[in-house]
Design brief:
The protein is 36% helix and 21% strand. It has helices spanning 9-24, 112-125, 138-142, 173-187, 198-208, 218-227, 239-246, 260-270, 275-279, 287-294, 296-315, and strands at 6-7, 31-35, 41-45, 48-52, 55-61, 75-82, 87-90, 129-134, 164-165, 191-195, 212-213, 232-237, 321-327, 334-339.
Length: 340
């Protein structure tokens, strides 16, 4: 079935930034082509370009393809001016989270992946820039997202690892997941590697040579694996999705529930984390914040327990040898492994 891909807010911001940087050099364009980490070059229409004082500004529209997304059609604006070094800041409508655990300039919700997309697009123009990303309707749109639930207030998040938005959360994705599970099992003699998102998928492919990206549909993948008599199953996940799976959520989409912090607290206690440390994460809004507050050693011990709990959930579905690999949020470090 033909499915339309979308672009992430990060890639939209990258496109707007490139257009604005070109404008600062006297070139106004109707569209720009921006690079993505997966090797594709994406052409994005530029809605408008203008000047505000020392800044040159351009805007593009977020396109979500077949992915259900309240941000579809949202205007993403980038204003740039030449600078001694490139710095990326958030403006009106871009969310902000307070706390030392927040990575990024000023605590603005611009992910590292989105920053890399913007930097790569600007590199093609040349020079260094101060960049301010804004979303005119961001404050209103944020009320329709989970941002406040995870501690991001005042606007939306600028996200994107690959720049491409694959429709993974809608029900039409189920058939694709089942087909890819069958293909992976057939190609690798009964071994199946699953990963919820792009970052985990990239790690899994490097570590094991193959993987199926399943989005929120972990239960569907496990069901198909059971039908196909999987022999060896490896699940690789970042903390957020794995914590949800560890408390029995076989579909990790937020509309089916939210057990993240409660499950993480339970895991921390089982891991022997001190009561005072555990008290410090009672009121956190996200898994990221909780792991930061626990500290490196306690976070690793806690995620090892999370992996063990997730292993039990998976083993209730499939009769196979199973390994669960818990990654850190960057997808570069293993926090815990459980096998059985």
């Amino acid at each position: 079935m033909w499915r339309r891909f979308g672009i992430t807010t990060g890639l939209a911001a990258a496109a707007a930034s490139k257009a604005a940087a070109l404008a600062s050099r006297g070139e106004t364009v109707g569209s720009v082509v921006v690079p993505s980490p997966i090797g594709l070059r994406i052409e994005v229409n530029v809605e408008r370009t203008w000047r505000e004082g020392d800044y040159y500004c351009s805007s593009v529209r977020k396109f979500s393809g077949d992915n259900p997304d309240v941000l579809d059609g949202a205007e993403i604006v980038s204003c740039v001016k030449p600078s001694q070094s490139t710095v990326i800041l958030g403006g009106k409508g871009v969310g902000r989270a307070e706390g030392e655990w927040v990575r990024g300039s000023g605590g603005y919700a611009i992910s590292e992946g989105a920053r890399r997309l913007i930097e790569s697009a600007l590199k093609e123009v040349g020079g260094e820039y101060e960049v301010i990303i804004s979303v005119p309707q961001g404050e209103e749109l944020a009320k329709l997202t989970m941002n406040e639930t995870v501690g991001v207030r005042g606007g939306i998040s600028i996200l994107g690892t690959t720049g491409i938005e694959w429709p993974v959360s809608d029900e039409g994705f189920e058939a694709h997941v089942r087909a890819m599970v069958c293909e992976d099992l057939s190609a690798h003699n009964g071994e199946l590697v699953l990963a919820p998102g792009n970052t985990a998928h990239n790690f899994a492919v490097k570590a094991f040579g193959h993987a199926v990206k399943v989005g929120d549909w972990i239960g569907v993948a496990l069901d198909e694996a059971k039908k196909r008599r999987v022999k060896n199953l490896i699940l690789v996940s970042l903390p957020g999705k794995l914590v949800k799976l560890s408390c029995g959520m076989l579909n990790t989409h937020s509309k089916y529930g939210d057990c993240r912090i409660e499950s993480l607290i339970h895991s921390a206690l089982l891991a022997g984390v001190g009561f005072e440390k555990v008290k410090g994460i009672l009121d956190v809004k996200s898994v990221s914040e909780a792991l930061y507050k626990l500290g490196e050693d306690e976070a690793s011990r806690t995620m090892k327990v999370v992996a063990e709990k997730a292993l039990k959930v998976v083993k209730r579905v499939v009769d196979a040898k199973v390994k669960v690999v818990a990654l850190d949020e960057k997808g570069t470090k293993v926090l815990g492994v459980a096998e059985g």
